[in-house]
Amino acid sequence: MSLAASHFVSVTELGARIVVRTRIEGGVTDAVGYLCACTDTECTVETKRGLVTLALADIVAAKQVPPPPAPRAPRRPLAD
Predict the structure, then answer these.
(1) For the chain, how many helices (H) and strands (E)?
(2) What is the pLDDT of residues 25-76, one digit of tens each?
(3) DSSP state letters, 8-70
(4) What domains does the chain contain, in order, with CATH numbers?
(5) pTM score, two decimals?
């Protein structure tokens, strides 16, 4: 556990876009999304795939990230 990383998550403003790296069996995984809730033991991040609840004790790194890029414009067919 990284005390600095779990502390960062616990003091970050709700609604901030963050990436949180947590320990899982066999390695680590990242959750990128918006911080929805945080208690003394866990936090909830809203990712593209839904809500993810993470134990603060499993966090190894965390930081704030910029907003996602704007959607790309659709490709247009080539003119004849």
Answers:
(1) 1, 5
(2) 999 999 999 999 999 999 999 999 999 999 999 999 999 999 988 888 888 7
(3) HHHHSPTT-EEEEEEEETTEEEEEEEEEEEE-SSEEEEEETTEEEEEEGGGEEEEEE-PPPPP
(4) 3-64 (2.30.30.520)
(5) 0.84
